[in-house]
Amino acid sequence: MALLCTWLYRSLHTSARVLKKGKAKSAAEHRWIQRQSKDPYVKASHNQNYRCRSAFKLLEIDDKFRLLLPGHAVVDCGAAPGAWSQVAVQRVNSAGTDPAAPRGTVVGVDLLNIATLDGAHFLPHHDVTDPSTHSKIQDLLPGGQAHVLLSDMAPNASGFRELDSEKLVSMCLTLTDLAEKLLLPGGSLLCKYWDGLLSHSLQEKLSCVFGSVRTVKPNASRKDSAERYFLARMYKRLIK
Prior knowledge:
By secondary structure, this protein is an alpha/beta fold. It has two domains: about 35 residues, no CATH class; about 180 residues, Rossmann fold. Helix content is about 45%, strand content about 20%. It is built from eight helices and seven strands, in the order ααααβαββαβαβαββ. It has a seven-stranded mixed β-sheet, with helices on both faces. The N and C termini lie far apart (about 40 Å).
């Protein structure tokens, strides 16, 4: 998905010409291109210089729940191509564009490469589910702690819905380990999941360490998608 976002507009401009020349394009690929070309969020992301349409999912959630405040430290898990980090940089003032507001911090992590972004520290080619990555994230955070964990990460789709859902739930569960290491008491976690049999177990796990957990589906998430987000707030750091 991240790679698709980065070359989307080049693809849209050339795809129709390629199809007319008889190049091999599957019916599914053709439908995807047509859908993207008519998607208002794709057009808006281009007009507003966001790297991907997913920026509008976070914008909508933050407008409603005010997760990202000036001065906050934020970790963006599965950050590529960087659209959520763009939103976070703006909202927490990590680029210092508002000299009158506190300056925040944004750290983005992904297995893929991420183009540089003013106001963000990126760790490309790093696995955020790997404990060895956690110390590197802490080194980039003020005091080694964060106010908010964001996760729009997802595994490569296998085509089997329940299997893909289980993989994503497993990835999200590792974020509770990351939260234990660096999330401030009272902090928040926003993570994507695909609705499935194990999504309830993820909700239960989050409810053990957060005071409030709710399901969110922003308008920018396509209606026919199983994509949902858990918004967990008021982190309760366990005393060992």
